[in-house]
Amino acid sequence: MSNAIAEYFEALERLKKSTNKVIRKGTRITNDSVALEAGRGKGSIKKSRPVFAALIAAIDAAASEQAQPVNDATNKLKAAKEDATRYKAMWLEALSREQSLVKQLWDERMEWTKKEAELTGEKVTSIHAKRRQKQT
What we know:
Blueprint: H1 3-17, H2 31-37, H3 53-120, H4 127-135
């Protein structure tokens, strides 16, 4: 392996480990970024040259590995959004159920107050009952 090819492979390893010396960290791994990191010109790695075949295969493999975490993050975000939607629906169902139970409890309390008034002979009515009758 020639010295230049070895430099390209070293540059590729630095890009994989995000220990770049020349180009900005977080740069996508491409033929051009490897060439620039190795101190060569953009476009110096050419597919038409057989000497670069192994290097290009290694660059393609590293690029696909680098793209994988982006997909994982996208999948995690999608799952989190689905969870949020599901939990919101569950919360709304629970809120509706609790509201229904509060109304049922209120109606039972009003009925009990009326029955108590009938049994004791007193005229006891709730202030809130008058408000409810006005609203309906």
